[in-house]
Amino acid sequence: MTSSIAAAARKLGVDTDVSLTEARDVVLETADEEELTSKCPGVDFVLGDDMNAGAGVLHLTTRRVVWVSSQPSGPAFALRYQQIMMHAISRDPTSYAKPCIYLQLDEGSEDMGMGGAGGDGEEEEEEEQVSAEVRLVPAEDAKVDEIFKVLCDCAALNPDSEVEGEGDFFFDEAEVMAGLDPQTRAAVIADRLEEGMDLDDQGEGEAMENGTREDLEQLVGNDPSRFEDDEEEDEGQGQPDGAQ
């Protein structure tokens, strides 16, 4: 049973090659500045719907969720927080018999969750049916909320790489203009002209590369008098005080 769980875990991207000390404590990844935040014994590790690896010690670090079997030669499983798509407390007895921490995993590639080559048909069929879910089931129901809070705090330290820094990306003006559809880009150009901005400041090569100047010439060519008032107003604003 243990080998089946380990095989299924690997198919779901769960690390089964966890470095442990002789006392079966987790070896922290110092290069990644990993720190141990919480250690809770008496927690079952359930993969999928009912593949229970038995009781073990749950280690919550600043980088990983690590479960180590209480058996001397038992398995150990590790998950990085980026692999966890969703985490929640489950107290619904129709979902699982005991209150637990529910983790939905990122299934990653299409090969995950599929039976590997070389195994017998029965094992492959079992692996194919394993859903990308993990349940951490403490022996003491009261521990659920405590574990969940620590897990949430640690997960917040490890934002997903796809959304990390969202809103902090910087683009130059030419890149922004190039990403607009022609109609919107023309409207933006018109607004800029009304504000008295000179498009030549963008750089001729950059503007031509992204189509900005071409779009402007086409827009003005279709209606040459469209911006005459604005240009005259701009010229008037540019004269020194007292000029006639």
Automatic annotation (TrEMBL):
SUPFAM superfamilies: PH domain-like. It is found in: Cytoplasm; Nucleus. Residues 196-207 have a biased composition (Acidic residues). Keywords: Cytoplasm, Nucleus. GO terms for biological process: cell volume homeostasis; chloride transport; mRNA cis splicing, via spliceosome; spliceosomal snRNP assembly. Residues 195-244 are annotated as: Disordered. The keyword Metal-binding does not apply. Belongs to the pICln (TC 1.A.47) family. This is Chloride conductance regulatory protein ICln. It comes from Pleodorina starrii.
